[in-house]
Fold Citrate synthase.
Amino acid sequence: MQDLRAKIAEMVPEEREKLKAIKSKYGKVSLGETTVDMAIGGMRGIKGMLWETSLLDPEEGIRFRGMSIPECQKKLPGVKPGGEPLPEGFLWLLATGEVPTKEQVQALSEDLKSRSKIPGHVFDVINALPKTAHPMTQLTAGVMALQTESEFAKAYEGGLHKSKYWEPVYEDSMNLIARLPELAAYIYRRIYKGGDVIGADSSLDYAANFAHMLGFDDELMHELMRLYLSIHTDHEGGNVSAHTVHLVGSALSDPYLSYAAGMNGLAGPLHGLANQEVLRWIQDVVSDIGSEVSLEQLKDYIHKTLKSGRVVPGFGHAVLRKTDPRYICQREFALKHLPDDPMFKMVSKLFEVVPPILLAGGKVKNPWPNVDAHSGVLLQYYGLKEQNYYTVLFGVSRAMGVLSQLIWDRALGLPIERPKSMTFEYIENFCKSKEGMTA
Ligand code: NMX
Ligand code: MLT
């Protein structure tokens, strides 16, 4: 079967049965305790969401539908043998849990091309913003303008039966994924290249065409873009952008509204904006103390950053407790293609120097680098040097994960999300009454 929608339609009854069976068999089983620390500590570790597309192990890192990054690189179709996987293959994998054939990936790639036309008013909305507006602000404004195209919103208004919600959500999701590269490239060319827009090349795959519209035609930049757009797709459901899409979608807000909300979370410096912050910080290091620095000088600089009450961007993670495998695969790309780049050498030195300093400080739970510690250095090597744009690339990729899950949220009929909040007084009274019971 080469059509993704038909494949999902075939899976829906079986997945609904699975949900029903889990509910009836295990519905009352406790998944763990919730402590006061968890409730006031960013809900860390609370198991509170179904998320099928990927799962994060603190020690091993992400698995997309059970597959590690090296397995995906090996098993998912690429443009050439041994090359990077095509993000379209990731999309198929995330949406179905199955490794697609070359033909399925090709069909999906063509389907996305056929959906990619953006209505003119979207560009008018973006053009109404000053060019100085952050690229992420321009992205979400563009996505909000695209919301006029929502098939789900129209169908809902027309009285769609709830068993069919997933169908227009699928259409919206695919249309949005298809349109994001042109929208994102428009924003890049508008802000940084004097509005000199480059048209799509229909002979190229999703990632290569995106790079082409941005203005990059180097084959290695195309490979980098395939890798980049693949590894940023998904990071289970609890991260700010994914959780936001899921939460907003649970109110039956359409995929455009839900995704735009998630992107506003990705635009935060502790989340996706960290990739911009990393490059800016490395550039500050180089301009303050030079690129040929000793490890001692670098250590002093890191202490200076920490003393000023700032974080070292690109290090740490809320869940991971080892180096992010997304960092490792980017490092492998750099070792293969740009081993002598001075900025890459700086990133390598930081890999050596930052973790022991964070560990010695005694409060950071994970001193190791995350995905954002590496991506900017690769992009700047191939000429994409405007770091304020980097989070947009993250956002284009993240659409594939969060929207795949959103389709399943609606197919499974998951309810509106509404966890319980508490006041200080409530927490204190609750804890006192428990103490009373155990005394
Ligand atoms: N530099 C300095 N301090 C840090 C760092 C860091 N890289 N990471 C954590 N800490 C601090 C943190 O601010 C907190 O301090 P305080 O108690 O004074 O509030 C303390 O260490 C404990 O935090 P953790 O429990 O280790 O981390 P948490 O789960 O709260 O936050 C991050 C996770 C990712 C937000 C945090 O590690 C961080 O701010 N890292 C730098 C920004 C970054 O790279 N974000 C990108 C994450 C990946 N992504 O793309 O989303
Ligand atoms: C992500 O990719 O979403 C980040 O690593 C943040 C997270 O998982 O919390």
